[in-house]
Amino acid sequence: MRGGVVNGAARLEEQFGARLLDRVEFRGELTYRVASDDWMEVLRFCRDDPELAFDQLDCLLGDHLPERTEAPFDVVAHLVSHTHGHRLRVKTALKEGQNLPTITGLWPSAGFDERETWEMYGIVFAGHPDLRRLLTIEDFEGYPLRKEFPIQGTVGGRIRTDLRGKI
Amino acid sequence: MSEARPTLEELKRRKALSRQRVERSGEVMTVSMGPQHPSMHGVYRAELDLDGEVIVAVRPEIGNLHRGVEKLCEERTYHQIIPITDRLDYLASFVMNHGYCEAVEKLMGVEVPPRGRYIRTLAAELCRIANHIMWLGIHIMDLGTQTFFCICFRDREYILDLLEMLTGARLTHSFGRIGGVAKDLPDGFDRRCRKVIDFLPRRVAEYERIVKHNRIYYKRAKGVGIFTSEDCFAWRVTGPPLRSAGVARDLRRDEPYAAYDEMDFEVAVEYNADVYDRFLVRMKEIRESCKIVRQCLDNLPDGPFVASDAVHALPLKKNVLRDSAAMIQDFYQVFQGPLAPKGEVYRAIEAPKGEMGVYIRSEGGAHPARIHFATPSFYHGQAVPPLVEGEMISDMVAIFASVDVVLGDCDR
Fold this sequence. Notes:
The complex is a heterodimer.
Chain A: H1 9-16, E1 20-26, E2 29-34, H2 39-48, E3 56-64, E4 73-80, E5 87-94, E6 100-101, H3 110-121, E7 125-126
Parallel strand pairs in A: 2-5, 6-7
Antiparallel strand pairs in A: 1-2, 3-4, 4-5
Chain B: H1 8-18, E1 29-33, E2 45-51, E3 54-61, H2 69-74, H3 82-86, H4 93-108, H5 114-142, H6 147-167, E4 176-177, E5 180-181, H7 189-211, H8 215-221, H9 229-234, H10 240-243, H11 251-254, H12 275-298, H13 317-320, H14 324-335, E6 343-351, E7 354-362, E8 368-374, H15 376-382, H16 384-388, H17 393-402, H18 407-411
């Protein structure tokens, strides 16, 4: 089925087995959770395997789940294959301050997404060619999409005018 | 004007040939283009490194229009988010409503009645026509003519009048609702819409007479800004730029939503992957959209236009103003909000500019725990460096306009 559950899912499970930590199927969408150490390898396999052939990264985003205290951050990648027409979601959990290798080498379109995830959540993508703030100004403090960041007011979102001209 | 379809290798060869035609002097000058530059389509800024007239490197800078849409959505109920989605791509705001509503319906399992699906299809195609006409006017204006811009805006006005009649607003429609649309077609809409749809293809023929065989346009657009299908996949460039590279990918056909699976239309494809073919693709798409709108009017089913699902959908507005129970339900739905099941969905639709995806993660409450809009302009704005590096600076405006970036969509 186009746009539905990936046909090559068995191929992925056969290759990685227990290294796929969790498999969720919801509303016809398939999600795999992997360890952050396997992130690069699984995604590379997804791109290069002819049965999976995910040639496009639809989007990459961060997520914050403060109730999951040991590893409160998620990075979610949505893959799409033009050859087979199927989609897949791959997730990994991260601790506060933990790095993730960049996937700009696999899909260059991840560049902006990773910059956005870094500035909004503080997740560092190791090896990213140009990890600067993207949507907010350079001297913005705090990570706006974390749940503890207030939606109104000036706390935590102070703009450091004293740094103007020095950066 | 028929040509043989170039293969991917041929396109790659042409791309390499068209870029870096002159010897480099080695002296690099940095020029800042935008955010106030008239051809930057909003507040996009690019730092260009120039060697003579050749662009060596580009550093795009976005975010001047960032409004924190995703953060705002986390504090609102599912109904309250709809007006925010209008402000993403404000040139086709109904399509943005539509994409969001499709995602919420997938999450909640809401079935849209046939009439609602048809009205959605109709409104989305009207938005697509308005967007493409606007794009054409601005694209041609970037290349140096003023009159044609006015011609395009005159014709866009007819579509905006129709949308105003249908939704009550000209730009930010907020017309989508969870489970359908806000209103039924008004009286007299059918006749007026048919009139516009009948003459628009003639207008498109007129545009083509003015632009397609225009020697100046041909020379500035043909073979400029070649972006092959491989590049498009790598940089997530979708929509008309992808279809101009010979890939017949259109989510309206490939992952049908609304009433597109019942429509008879062709996916517009061209093969040379340059600025000129992106123009041709959009002109074809206007014609196809007119066809779809006509089919919607012809086959419009009877029945409700919004789901009568009291748990998730809003009650009809006319009842809200008369009936206190409906008013309480309306109030409850908007401010307490419908509860979504725990889970996550991703739904992509074909917006006029490319594929627009909406990701929602719900923890079972009345607010989404995380919402993300994967908007086409964001990725098209990112793809500007590989698109223009090696080209001449005067082609920068043509190429940048040809991928169609709207900064409200880009910065979110």
